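Annex B. Sample input.
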Amino acid sequence: MPGFSTTAIHAGQEPEARTGAVTVPIFQTTTYAQHTLGEHVKYDYGRTINPTREAWETNIAALENGKFGFAFASGMSAIAAALSIIKSSDHVIAGSDMYGGTYRYFSKILSNFGIEVSYVNMSPMGPISPMGHMGSAIKKNTRLIYAETPTNPMMNLTDLAELGKLARERGILTVVDNTFMSPYLQNPLDFGIDAVVHSTTKYIGGHSDVIGGALVTSSSEIAEQTKFYQNAYGAIPSPFDCWLMLRSVKTLALRMRAHCENAQIIAERLASDDRVKKVYYPGLTSHPQHELAIKQMKGFGGMVSVELGSLERAKKFTSALRYFTLGESLGGVESLVCHPLTMTHASVPEERRLELGITEGLVRLSVGIEDIGDLLEDVERGLSVI
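Annex B, continued. Sample output.
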């Protein structure tokens, strides 16, 4: 079996048949010629199928060690596709600590369709407040368990092997958001998870220039339902966006190694400073799930969350930074800093934010691949004013 970088460069990307073009062409078309009335053709309409999108879907499926890949116009549309397999009166268990946009979808949209959602702490899989253990959260109508690992922004982990085992024993489907790790660092399907979703806008796209999402599974049933949803709802990426993903993914391994290396150094520096209240990063031995991170991840990622103690200190810190740009999103080659309470998690109720630890003083760093000396200097600049 070829290695990750070889797969990233070659899967779904054979030279084009007619011209021999090494790079997959952008098939910028909405429809295809059908030569005989009533003839069955593979290519009929651009929303349903496109050769550039096919290449990208083959590629992302291979990178996640899955059989079927589906591309979407955004990470949220990929999540919506994953949740399309449930129906009214079904029960869903979701991680209490998740991206604010995902929580908004669960609480504001799914709830309108008669779907019940229970939010539980999946980190660790043992005690779940307030319901005791995960098993007690499961009901007769529980259809799906949805998790992020690591979570955004608190960097909590879910034991993928334990989650997969528990769900299989109960006949429950599992979906994991793997955005923070990318396929290079973590492959949930290998641990028995049924489907993986990504905001490919982040590390997979990697350059802050294209929005996209993906769903990967090895289940024929989930694949069939997802394909129907993809065509029926039409939340597909353009051929050009798919081409950008194919271009970007070729350097994913190189970029992720640099992200991990820089983030580890930044996290260790912050953790050693008395002006910092707490650092959340799985690569630190102080992280309560450091051993689990070693077990199921190939690296610790580029995301570091930092508790600075107050909104005033967070403002001073972020305002002093030069290379860490204050902005939404993450996973690009450039470093970003975010204030979750007022940005990515503003849609989460205040009481829930406080329960999760998303305070006024929490900032989230997306550590880029700039020279580490410059990033360390930037962090020192931020710390010097708080």
